[in-house]
């Protein structure tokens, strides 16, 4: 006997409600992860509203959410806009709605507005590991937790050679982009291990001594790196980092007189287009909007500073400028490839770092390759 119409409708309503309930439960799945600060946190998988403490965390998000890296970003720091205008222009041209994302201001400022983060409906706040202790001391972590906002720490700057891979894989798990994270991991390991296979057996005494000047033309000479970041890039590429002899910190200030007296075999410097945010900058404006002619002009001017012409690296044209943003991005290994080829052209004669960087854009990024990211003094 057929069921009464009202009963059939009630059954349908119950089934529909159950399906919505189960769908909602699946969408709100919570997973347990360990972040780069070693904190075990419960986080909503595939969150739809995240805040990036640093705009340059977009470099990673662009690989994971390639179709639209801004789709779940409701707020971000202003450092990418201020410090990498070439990249910002390319992303904005392809994703014009990015201009509507809430600007959280300078990510390195003393105060972070928990109220502003909460007002955006934030589910996950992605914070750089360098801010861990400050976030603890100011009570920000406790306030965010009380507000139901999960904080996750990642690291692409303090110790990238150790922390890039776990940071990308952590974000891949959280964002439901494990496939993309694993594809990057395979590519990353292939490139970094290929460098090690060619330089790993070279005795230290046969490796060139390299000084790297951090943000040359923006910071006073001679800001440099200890055994981290660009200092570590040099070592992984088969060189000896001058700063590692004297400093144990991520960054340090070297005396210009000491650098000139030690007369390193190779001189590196980092640069970017800081002219908008720092009009007095004389840095080599490397990046997506750079041209070879302008880069060379700026590089020559920096190496014409008093005292630098006496360096054997300058006289022998063993001077290179590198895109400063490699210090805060997951594909820093591109810089290592270019360094290794400069140190050992015979061992890397079959390697074309620029071709690999172009391939990386095609495989992993939503924007096309353009500009200049490293240059040798001509």
Automatic annotation (TrEMBL):
<feature type="domain" description="Fe/B12 periplasmic-binding">
    <location>
        <begin position="49"/>
        <end position="351"/>
    </location>
</feature>
<keyword id="KW-0732">Signal</keyword>
<protein>
    <submittedName>
        <fullName>Iron complex transport system substrate-binding protein</fullName>
    </submittedName>
</protein>
<dbReference type="InterPro" id="IPR002491">
    <property type="entry name" value="ABC_transptr_periplasmic_BD"/>
</dbReference>
<dbReference type="Pfam" id="PF01497">
    <property type="entry name" value="Peripla_BP_2"/>
</dbReference>
<feature type="signal peptide">
    <location>
        <begin position="1"/>
        <end position="23"/>
    </location>
</feature>
<dbReference type="InterPro" id="IPR050902">
    <property type="entry name" value="ABC_Transporter_SBP"/>
</dbReference>
